Amino acid sequence: MDQKILSLAAEKTADKLQEFLQTLREDDLTNLLQNQAVKGKVAGALLRAIFKGSPCCEEAGALRRRKIYTYCIQLVESGDLQKEIASEIIGLLMLEAHHFPGPLLVELANEFISAVREGSLVNGKSLELLPIILTALATKKENLAYGKGVLSGEECKKQLINILCSGRWDQQYVIQLTSMFKDVPLTAEEVEFVVEKALSMFSKMNLQEIPPLVYQLLVLSSKGSRKSVLEGIIAFFSALDKQHNEEQSGDELLDVVTVPSGELRHVEGTIILHIVFAIKLDYELGRELLKHLKAGQQGDSNNNLSPFSIALLLSVTRIQRFQDQVLDLLKTSVVKSFKDLQLLQGSKFLQNLVPHRSYVSTMILEVVKNSVHSWDHVTQGLVELGFILMDSYGPKKVLDGKTIETSPSLSRMPNQHACKLGANILLETFKIHEMIRQEILEQVLNRVVTRASSPISHFLDLLSNIVMYAPLVLQSCSSKVTEAFDYLSFLPLQTVQRLLKAVQPLLKVSMSMRDSLILVLRKAMFANQLDARKSAVAGFLLLLKNFKVLGSLSSSQCSQSLSFSQVHVDVHSHYNSVANETFCLEIMDSLRRCLSQQADVRLMLYEGFYDVLRRNSQLANSIMQTLLSQLKQFYEPKPDLLPPLKLEACILTQGDKISLQEPLDYLLCCIQHCLAWYKNTVIPLQQGEEEEEEEEAFYQALDDILESITNRMIKSELEDFELDKSADFSQSTSIGIKNNICAFLVMGVCEVLIEYNFSISNFSKNKFEDILSLFMCYKKLSDILNEKAGKAKTKMANKTNDSLLSMKFVSSLLTVLFRDSIQSHQESLSVLRSSSEFMRYAVNIALQKVQQLKETGHVSGPDGQNPDKIFQNLCDITRVLLWRYTSIPTSVEESGKKEKGKSISLLCLEGLQKIFSAVQQFYQPKIQQFLRALDVTDKEGEEREDADVSVTQRTAFQIRQFQRSLLNLLSSQEEDFNSKEALLLVTVLTSLSKLLEPSSPQFVQMLSWTSKICKENSREDALFCKSLMNLLFSLHVLYKSPVILLRDLSQDIHGHLGDIDQDVEVEKTNHFAIVNLRTAAPTICLLVLSQAEKVLEEVDWLITKLKGQVSQETVSEEASSQTTLPNQPVEKAIVMQLGTLLTFFHELVQTALPSGSCVDTLLKDLCKMYTTLTALVRYYLQVCQSSGGIPKNMEKLVKLSGSHLTPVCYSFISYVQVSDSEAVPNRSSRKDF
């Protein structure tokens, strides 16, 4: 039979074939077809013949064709056929689909859809026909009966796709079904159906099946719905990430973790690659991605951004066209996130309304962490983002050349956080990805070398962290570091010091690097530029400190202990130590040559030798010999010659130019510290060793010289130095300049000798008398300079007038002067205590040291670069100053005071104010330790219980002491009121209040106390009043919104200053006594206006956030119908804030304010008020259509603005114009208004 059909089909006409086929039963045909197909014989030819003999123009032929078609589909789906046969049959069916009439196509399509919905497909091979059938159907122009109605082919296709997408899809055919639609011509609406269906299937599929599905969706997106595809993918993986993180953080859920972390990250990585590839082929998709993520920024950027979307964006940076836009978007998001955080942290009102969220910075660092799972496509973007953040938001240079990086108020600024985030991104990326390490190091070094004139401390910190992490790994990049060394001579000294300190661990592992550095330093030593020579000294000193000689003491006392990763590098320890000795002695030889160079170079050497000695004690003899031979050039050995030092030899005269040649005071200071260290550390360990006697004799000789200088300095009169009152000290003559230099040298020598004699005194009365005599010499000269030099003095004084006393000595001296109660010490101490000038001098030097710390982050003198030692000294100094201030109040001290200048108590308070500020700036993590050190009652036995006492409790204890002092001050009469002290006390209280936890009862107590002080005390001192009110506001905003406080204050101001209409008598409210005629304007008026501005800023921020949510939610109608519910508390709070602010402005606008800053600021803030009201009205107009009208309280607010504010604004403008008519007639701000 099959042969007959085939032979008939070979004829030119199909008539005989049709007749023969009509004689056969359907079953015969299907059986024949099945046999041929299963045996793998000529099934294709047979099928062609059957189709040829079943033309669609005849009804019987069409029906036969339809049944054979359906049977073939079942046959292919059964899985009984060989692959080639099945493919051949499918190919034939595809070609024949277009010949079917419309109704039969609809039937075929419905069969397919039923099979999909019922899940009766076996292998899904036949699904390849469905797009052909749907495409054929869409081309039919005639109307077709469908259901109860009549539809065109295109409408039928739409209806069928709708039914298919609304039904159930078997998980295993989702990819195939989605892929199928790319071959069907679809309208935008149909694409949306398909995309929604495919996206809804994500959650039902295995994780490994999602990447191919995403790929098919991206292919499909070229037909439309790009936005939906991207939004769906991002939303799904963001939710999955969030769920995954919650599962990992909750231990009890660990048993039911849905997806292993590695698998999830690999899948995400694959999907990101698919999307990036799709964007390369279709730029519209990239634009849609950026548009979608930018839209979120208008409201709350954290809603749209997630670790997944950030990783996707970073991968897109590899496409040139989008690189800048993406990095700009991420940069803006980071800063916006930090600004939002800053706004939230400063306002309890916002904290109550806005829930805690994760921040962009956390998400980016999470991306870095996740990138360990072969996300190489993300790393380049991470590096670029890290450098962009560091470049854009690093410390900036200000006018006087100093950087503003150390200012305490700026340490919490968004820009600084952004810069720090950049550094963290680069450091963490460096740790994870080996491939990118060389590039990061290269870029950091390039910036260090090429940006010498701008602040680069943040890059040097990053370099230091990179080197600390892996010195051995970086050996491969050593050529980059040695290239940077070539530029050392041209870099600023501070940069050189920090760069060498950062790469120092590398020098220990790489001999070649060390050698190339030494070559560079030797060249620099003889360079023309002074800075290059100073850099050489700094480099050599650093090498001496870090290459230990065999037999040196352990570095437990080091100021910069090295990390283990560095220490373990020294594998051949003994060899290294021996080699180091030769190496160090060579360097010492080079450094000796510096002693013939300029004063600045010598000074660096003297300041660095002490640290070298402590780190490398075997060099002690070499260093001390060098110092002694240098001192002998300026020392008069004859014991009866006065003065004992040759000051003339220290000064260089070149024609008219006179300059310092030898900083003799620093030389003596260095000798004194080295000697003290040697006596305290080395000698105790050497007792009983005979060979050390010669060495001891040498040190004894140094002691004798210092002793001799002390005795002769005391005997010397100022005339001996030619520095008496009659001497010329003007800066315009060479004699005057020379005398100034000599005076500072003598004062420096006196300070050094004071410290030396104190260190060897052992509380001897004679030594203390010597100290006082030396101080009197210092004081006389200081007084003469202050009196004579006048204005010209500042030029010189700023340069050299840093005290030479070490911070450790200042702390010990203050402790014995004020706190030493040991009986045997009292008689000798009375010598020093009898001089109030000496005690004031001691406190003044402590203040100078703390000020230096605040400005530069370190102090001069030994251990001045060691944060731990400085912190210890700060604790000791603070304890003494606190005791002295609270024990002897200023009022008691000043009543019997005759001297000019500040009292000691006031100086102590000033010191405390500076210290509290410095500790919060540099030692935030050690606050607990600092406060514990201040607790004088602490006993060692109580240490354990003590550890439980919180920072807030300790701070509250300290605050109470200062509160008592302020209350005592305020209880005095107005004329006896010490405004300086009051101002300092409020500054101290402000500083300490920052350490209180805002949710604690102690904080509330502090707020109510401050409020009470403002309500009950009236002082006319504007500065005191301003600082007290600032304290009140800074506390109030962390407790609740200050709008009611502002309203009360505005009523007080109105009461005191009167009304703009002179006929109206204003009732005085007196909520706050601090508001009086003197302080009401401009002081308090400007303060309340700046607070009102902040409240408006917060309200603006909330309105923007609400608008952003609405614009995102209007996309789906269901969401928008529910928008009002979660936002109701926020909307209500906004209306309440603005209502209270309206009454605040209502009062101020009627107040007779003095023209000038108060009026200008009020007008500016009124403009802001109206702008904010307009923004709120626009928001309500946007949402009222879906939420059913504008709320009643909003209507009231609008009415209130119309009745209470707008009319009085016009009266106020008239009042301003009248009061200004005699002054400048028009101001731009008023015109604008």
From TrEMBL:
The gene is FANCI. Residues 64-280, 378-541, 804-1032, 1045-1225 form the FANCI solenoid domain. Residues 1-53 form the FANCI solenoid 1 cap domain. Signal peptide: none annotated. The lineage of its organism: Eukaryota, Metazoa, Chordata, Craniata, Vertebrata. This is FA complementation group I. It holds the Pfam family FANCI_S2. GO terms for molecular function: DNA polymerase binding. It comes from Theropithecus gelada. One of its GO terms (biological process) is DNA repair. InterPro entries: FANCI, FANCI_HD1, FANCI_HD2, FANCI_S1, FANCI_S1-cap, FANCI_S2, FANCI_S3, FANCI_S4. Residues 284-370, 555-785 form the FANCI helical domain. CDD domains: FANCI. It comes from the Eukaryota.
